[in-house]
């Protein structure tokens, strides 16, 4: 055997084409190694070669971690080729759908009489409507099926809602009237309750944050600390400016000392940097929600922090490599929430909507609040709309998932806009691309009809009930 | 005898015991003719009878001791269709019933589903959805006091279907239904003990 191999090798060496064959073999081995390494490598750019197609805007941040969606080992039911991705969807989006009072949850279709409908459109599988890596068929909100999908189940809607007669089935969810999942701001009673509101409400103000009440963990605000009480280890040199900044913050006011965040006490080593997990000890809700948005979702799956150079929206070049962690928006030792609310965003974001903000009436109100000429809660910063103040079990807290109110954007109408605007105006503005681009500097050109339609429907019902009551 | 899975057997056994006590003691907004359920052998019919007895007992308690009681006291809290976004509101009896059914739907191991159905549904979700369901509702109308039992196949799965009459036994029930703006032109004027619809229990076999 070895003699045969040696003779083949000798013949190969004497061949005039040997160098070409060697080159060919080396190239092939290199290609195989490149793709092979991509298969087994940890989440990194090495996996780019295995992407089957462009990932949607909601998932591309974590596309290098194939296992975030494809790892069967993460399924509680064990490996299963058919439901692995469904499990991955629910892991990240299940709670959001619960909060949104999902109007089409999978359980709604467990009634066996839906069997025929499910055969046409499997509404129990997220992937029926939201496939990945198929950019050529992906619409807004990651929808990958024709926009007239409502027709399959609601083709007789005009029988019970005559006002819907002759409406196009691809307009149900694209005209500010309905969503498949989140209809909290769009269902008939909410619309009717907010009928007749002026565009600008007289009492326009945001709810105030319950900062202390929304803290998590065992820490609770203690007595205020003075600059002389900073407990950093004596061996650590701390810049006076850092101490001055800290002393002006709510942290010092609440008794949060250096070692609470940097360690260096009996339990831990001193660290110059502060990990997100340290913030999470007291701000669990904020950190958890940060990790479900585009800013923090890479951290949630163990990837390095998102940086603006990876964004698909236009960003300022100077901030290309800024790491998006807690400190990105709450920098230094001031943790200035007013800075975080607008200037921090505008340092990076350079799309038309963001660039238009400074000239908007919202920005004017924000400046008035900052200068003290406007009441607290009357200003509108970026955070006002994109990091909404949510009523939770322990009071008002700030949702740090800046995408939560955009899935879809009508969510923002109920959570944010209606603090200051009428519902019809809010929905109309959110459905108007021109208005969005100008950061709502331009009033909506068309009015959403759903509020009027809901009022007419309830009036018909009231009239019919009156008639029934008067009938002997 | 058709075999039931372990969950179904446990549910039937436990629910049957629980069901008989309240049914014996409490009058309700609706009544049914759930057959007496022996605690021994478990057929799909007995299983359906058992779970139906429990759901009707719960519904009866809610309708009479919560909703009607609030109304009698002229309390500020009222049963209202849009209770989720309205202060001082609680779900209507039919909504409470449907929410229970949805919770069961969330559990793939529950082994059965249930729902309200009517020939005159105020909520279009409650209209008959299969031929067998339509047959069952006609049967309940034509045969007062009897239950309907049958089998049907949906999506390559065979089901045992039991439908029990859903009766109006309290004035609040039929008055609210009779005055409801969603009623169609053919809606009957319901009165005491009329069959307003059916409670459907579906068990895979």
Summarize the entry for a quick read.
Chain A is mainly α. Chain A has helices at residues 2-14, 18-40, 67-70, 84-99, 115-120, 151-154, 157-160, 188-193, 240-247, 250-253, 258-262, 276-282, 284-290, 297-300, 326-329, 337-341, 343-348, 352-357, 361-371, 382-386, 410-415, 423-430, 433-437, 450-470; strands at residues 389-392, 395-398. Chain A has a two-stranded antiparallel ribbon.
Description:
The complex is a heterodimer of chains A (472) and B (205). By secondary structure, chain A is mainly alpha-helical. Among the domains of chain A are: 60-66 and 83-105 and 118-193, no CATH class; 283-437, no CATH class. Chain A contains 24 helices and 2 strands. Chain A has a two-stranded antiparallel sheet. Chain A is globular. By secondary structure, chain B is an alpha+beta fold. Chain B has one domain. Chain B has helices at 6-25, 44-72, 93-105, 131-142, 171-178, and strands spanning 78-79, 89-90, 113-117, 148-154, 157-167, 195-204. Chain B has a 4-stranded antiparallel sheet with strand order 3-6-5-4, with helices on both faces. In chain B, strands 1-2 form a two-stranded parallel sheet. In chain B, a hairpin with a 2-residue loop joins strand 4 (148-154) and strand 5 (157-167). In chain B, helix 1 (6-25) packs across helix 2 (44-72) and helix 2 packs antiparallel against helix 3 (93-105). Mean pLDDT of chain B is 82; it is low at 10-37. The chains are: A mainly alpha (472), B alpha+beta (205).
């Amino acid at each position: 055997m070895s003699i045969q191999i040696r003779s083949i090798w000798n013949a190969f060496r004497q061949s005039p084409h040997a160098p070409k064959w060697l080159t060919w073999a080396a190239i092939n081995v290199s290609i195989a190694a490149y793709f092979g390494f991509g298969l087994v490598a940890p989440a990194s750019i090495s996996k780019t070669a295995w992407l089957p197609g462009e990932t949607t805007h909601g998932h591309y941040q974590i596309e290098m971690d194939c296992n975030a969606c494809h790892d069967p080992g993460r399924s509680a039911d064990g490996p299963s080729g058919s439901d692995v991705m469904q499990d991955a969807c629910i892991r990240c989006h299940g709670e959001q759908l619960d909060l949104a009072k999902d109007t089409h949850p999978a359980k709604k279709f467990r009634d066996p009489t839906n069997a025929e409908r499910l055969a046409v459109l499997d509404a129990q599988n997220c992937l029926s409507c939201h496939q990945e890596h198929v950019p050529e068929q992906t619409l807004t909100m990651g929808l990958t099926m024709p926009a007239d999908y409502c027709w399959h189940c609601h083709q007789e809607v005009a029988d019970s809602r005559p006002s819907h007669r002759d409406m196009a089935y691809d307009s149900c969810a694209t005209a500010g009237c309905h969503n498949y999942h989140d209809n909290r701001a769009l269902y008939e009673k909410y619309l009717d309750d907010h009928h007749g509101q002026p565009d600008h409400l007289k009492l326009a103000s945001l709810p105030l944050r319950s900062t202390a009440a929304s803290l998590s963990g065992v820490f609770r605000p203690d007595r205020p600390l003075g600059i002389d009480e900073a407990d950093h280890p004596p061996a650590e040199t701390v810049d006076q400016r850092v101490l001055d900044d800290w002393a002006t913050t709510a942290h010092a006011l609440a008794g949060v000392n250096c070692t609470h965040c940097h360690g260096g006490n009996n339990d831990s080593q001193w660290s110059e940097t502060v990990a997100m997990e340290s913030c999470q000890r007291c701000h669990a809700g904020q950190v958890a929600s940060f990790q479900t948005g585009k800013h923090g979702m890479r951290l949630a799956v163990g990837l390095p922090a998102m940086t603006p150079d990876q964004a698909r929206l236009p960003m300022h070049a100077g901030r290309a490599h800024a790491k998006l962690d807690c400190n990105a928006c709450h920098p230094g030792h001031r943790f200035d929430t007013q800075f975080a609310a607008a200037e921090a965003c505008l340092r990076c974001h350079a799309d038309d909507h963001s660039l238009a903000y400074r000239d908007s009436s919202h920005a004017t109100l924000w400046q008035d609040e900052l200068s003290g000429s406007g009441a607290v809660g009357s200003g509108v910063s970026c955070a006002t709309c994109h990091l909404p103040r949510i009523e939770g079990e322990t009071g008002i807290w700030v949702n740090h998932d800046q995408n939560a109110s955009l899935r879809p954007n009508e969510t923002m109408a109920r959570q944010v806009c209606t603090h200051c605007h009428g519902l019809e105006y809010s929905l109309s503005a959110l459905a108007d691309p021109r208005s969005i681009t100008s950061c709502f500097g331009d009033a909506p050109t068309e009015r959403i009809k759903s509020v009027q339609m809901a009022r007419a429907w309830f009036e018909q019902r009231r009239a019919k009930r009156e008639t029934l009551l008067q009938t002997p | 005898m058709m075999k039931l899975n372990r969950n179904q057997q446990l549910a039937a056994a436990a629910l049957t015991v629980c069901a008989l006590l309240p049914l014996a003691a409490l009058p309700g907004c609706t009544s049914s003719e759930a057959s007496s359920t022996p605690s021994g052998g478990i057929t799909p019919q007995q299983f359906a009878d058992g779970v139906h007895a429990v759901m009707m007992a719960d519904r009866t308690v809610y309708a009479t001791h919560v909703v009607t009681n609030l109304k009698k006291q002229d309390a500020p809290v009222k049963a209202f269709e849009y209770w989720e976004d309205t202060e001082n509101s609680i779900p209507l009896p039919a909504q409470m019933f449907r929410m229970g059914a949805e919770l069961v739907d969330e559990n793939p191991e529950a082994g059965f589903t249930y729902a309200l159905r009517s020939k005159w549904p105020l909520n279009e979700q409650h209209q008959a959805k299969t031929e067998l369901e339509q047959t069952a509702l006609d049967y309940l109308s034509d045969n007062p006091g009897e239950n309907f039992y049958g089998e049907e196949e949906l999506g390559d799965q065979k089901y045992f279907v039991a439908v029990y009459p859903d009766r109006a036994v309290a004035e609040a029930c039929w008055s609210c239904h009779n005055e409801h703006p969603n009623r169609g032109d053919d809606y009957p004027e319901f009165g005491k003990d009329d069959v307003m619809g059916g409670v459907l229990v579906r068990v895979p076999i």
